[in-house]
Structure formats: C-alpha cells, structure tokens
Amino acid sequence: MNGPLRLVKLTTRAIASLTLNIPQRSRGLKTMSGRDVSPELVAQLGKPPRMRKDPAFKKVQTPEFRSVFTPELKELEALFKKYDYELRIAGGAVRDILMSIPPKDIDLATTATPEQMKAMFEKEEVRMINANGEKHGTITPRINDKENFEVTTLRIDIRTDGRHAEVMYTTNWQLDANRRDLTINSMFLGFDGTVYDYFYGYDDLQERRVVFVGEADIRIKEDFLRILRYFRFYGRIAKDEKNHDEATLAAVKENAGGLARISGERIWTELQKIVVGNYGSELLLEMHRCNLFEHIGLPVEPNLEEFERLCAGLENFEKPHYPILYIAGMLHSVDDAMAMHKRLKLSAYERDLARFITQEREKVGTDYTTLRDYQKLCLKKYIQRDYVEQLLKYSNKLELYNQLKAWVTPDFPIRGNTLAEHGLKSKRLGLVLDELKLLWADSDFQLTHKELLTKIPDVLEKIPSSPKRVK
Ligand SMILES: Nc1ccn([C@@H]2O[C@H](COP(=O)(O)OP(=O)(O)OP(=O)(O)O)[C@@H](O)[C@H]2O)c(=O)n1
C-alpha cells in the first residue's frame, strides 16, 4: 500500500471481534468516534480464513536465516528485548528464507508503536532516518552508522479504498498477518527461528500454492495492485504454469477494473517483473484472459500471434531480455505503443524502443536483409544501435544479431561542422550527413574524408531544398 495511513481507535469490543474474523461479531461495530466500521471490513469478517490452530511451530536454522544476523540486527534485537517489545522478521523475507533464498531486504514488525520506538531510540541515542516513513507506521533506525532497518508497528487495516488504508495499531500478530495479501507473505520469523504462520503460508509455500489470505475478492479490493502481485508471485513460486486457484482467478477477473485506479508507474513496475519471471508469457496470456489489459494500457485485443512467435524466437537468445521487448509483441502499431506509454509512463528509452520495433519490424526480411542494412540503420541520427540489436532479437535473426554485436562501428570521417563550413545548415546538414553515411557504409566504410566531400554535390541534388521534418 502507499499513501499516508490514517489511524483510528476502535472500541475494545470492536477489536475483540476483529481477532477472530467471525461474522456475527461484526454486527454493530463502531469506531471510538462513533463511526461504523467499513462495509469491507464487515464483509471481510464474513468468512474466516483457513487458520492454523498452533501457529508457532518450526525452528528454522538455515544458512539463509543465519546470514541475516548482522551484528547490527543483533544489536537492534537486543534493544527491543531490553524494552520488552517483540520484534520479528515479517512478510517477504520470511518467505525467501523458507525457500533458502537470501532475502533482498528484511522488513521487521513489532508490537511497539511508532511513538514507543521513537522514545526508545532517542533514549538509546540511535539515529532515525527517513522521517517520512512514520506516517506509514514505519520507523527506520540506523544502527552503528552502518545498517538501516525498517520496523513497522503491527496494524490492522480498518478502511481501504483500493489504494490507501486507514489503520489501527495492534499488538496482535495474527491480526497483522490477516491484513497481508498472500498466505506465503503473511508469516513472521522470530529471532530464535520460530515460524509464526496463521494461515498455512508454510504449507502453501511447500506446495508452491499462491493464494490470498482469506477471500481473494476482499484482499484485492483492499489494494488492486495485488492482482499483479498475485501474478508476480505465481511466477516466483508455482511449479507449473497452469496451476492457478480457480477462485482466485475468478476474483481477479471480477476486480480487473480496479486496476484502472492504480498509477501507471506501479503497474509497470509489477508488469516488468512478471514478464521476465518464470512463465512470463503464459502469465501475460492469463492476464489477458482475465480482462486486465484494457486497464493496464495494453491492447484489449492484443497481437497474440505475433506475441507467440516472438516468445518462441526469444528462446534462441541468451536471457535476460528487456521487459518492453516482450510487451512490444502484444502491440499492433505505433499507436498502441504510444497508448501504452501514456498509461504506464515508460522511460524514454522504453517508449522509443517500443515505437521503433512496432515501426520497423515489418521491414525485417524485406527492406532489411543483410548485415549492411542493419549497420546503416545504426548510423541514422535518431536510432540507437541498441534498438537495432533489439529489433534483430525481436525478429529472431540470431546470426545477424551476433554479427551486429561483433561489429565495431568505425569512426565516420566527417563531422557536422565540416559540412557547416561548406555552407550547409541545420536540417539540410543533417540529411546530407545521413546520406554521406550511407554512401560510406556502401563503400564498406572505406571512403575517406576527402572522397566523401566530393560526393556532397550529388547528395544535395537528391535532397529537396526545404526538407520535411524527419522523425
Ligand atoms: N499490496 C501489498 C503489498 C505488500 N503486502 C505485504 O507487505 C510485505 C512486504 O511487501 P513488499 O516489500 O512489497 O514485497 P515482498 O513480499 O517483500 O516481496 P519482494 O521480495 O518482491 O520485495 C509483503 O510480503 C506482504 O506481506 C501486502 O500485504 N499487500
């Protein structure tokens, strides 16, 4: 979730009822200010998730677990212990450790409130950084001027609007687990190696099963980006490309429109990880079947045939590939590329590559056949050499791709200012330069500075006196 959190206080009765997710307890819930608890929350109480009777069960002592214990983390743990607050590793890091993957970063969860943490760190003279995090319930101590840790207070989402959450702090670990997206992301790990798993995340991880905590529909409505997170983690965890939980897919389909409310940048970040991950192409096709495309800037009726051809061809090339390269296969035209850019806010590089590929791909095999053709393309002013290499990859031209990769571009013997000295200006100068480069390429890059200058009159003959703007 992003955006600031708003805190509300609930009555004791309301809190008690949240603990167990039992429907009858949801009736008549009020916040302390007398407001009704959100309908989503009440709905959430509608069906209790699969819950473990004995959630604290396993001692993990894998190398991945031990490797997270830097002296700084140990020091932080000792501090929380001294003040009698509980501290555990939370979410994604637990999932990774249990899969014997060293976690990228370690999120920590605690029973201490942000205020309590601040008081503790101030007293112990521990510097805190990123004061911004506080409005998200996260304090970031920097230990020994060496390592930062994000510590988030246990919380419950009281009210959500699909993007932001209104939260309440709690000291109940199960309630915090209950607000998380997937069962595999809902576990905690104590510093003695105990796994705290309330919703069978451990079993799901062993079985490579990707499901939401409780009802998928509710979890997705809390944050529609979770639709894409589902596909991303499916790629990371599942053993088989077609082993989706049917109820989950149904909820994804049902809530597809919610993605329209999520920012392009966040969608693109997830989408990129999905396409380059395991089963990337199959997942993209599944996302299409779930009617997600129109909400994430991709064509409602994508170029499936081209996409299939592209994915098969890319197998012949060494990975990784740019995510945008896969996506370009789904597009029919330059207009599709620009519409996608408008929605997803691609980088300038990605936008131009998508545009270049959709514009040039039909010329491969017709206008462009030899290595020389591609070398000439590389020499054009607005074309980066990398685009041309990507075009060859895209078109499954392995041999030409390798040849172009091995080609060292020789130095063009003429500079723009030499032409300026010959009275040529701006656009016309650029066009002459481009033409001379083509002649130079045709001479196998042999024409000298002097020889090229003698070609200028011929070149000028070919160029209209007031050229149209070239894109
Ligand atoms: N929309 C979201 C985003 C995050 N989370 C919870 O917050 C944790 C941390 O989120 P994040 O850092 O985004 O993902 P990770 O699970 O750590 O995955 P990654 O390794 O890709 O960072 C998740 O594990 C999950 O418990 C959630 O419930 N819903």
TrEMBL record:
Pfam families: PolyA_pol (PF01743), PolyA_pol_RNAbd (PF12627). GO terms for cellular component: mitochondrion. GO terms for molecular function: metal ion binding; nucleotide binding; nucleotidyltransferase activity; tRNA binding. Residues 245-296 form the tRNA nucleotidyltransferase/poly(A) polymerase RNA and SrmB- binding domain. One of its GO terms (biological process) is mitochondrial tRNA 3'-end processing. Transmembrane segments: none annotated. Keywords: Magnesium, Metal-binding, Nucleotide-binding, Nucleotidyltransferase, RNA-binding, Transferase, tRNA processing. The keyword Flavoprotein does not apply. Residues 87-210 form the Poly A polymerase head domain. Its cofactor is Mg(2+). Belongs to the tRNA nucleotidyltransferase/poly(A) polymerase family. This is CCA tRNA nucleotidyltransferase 1, mitochondrial. The lineage of its organism: Eukaryota, Metazoa, Ecdysozoa, Arthropoda, Hexapoda.
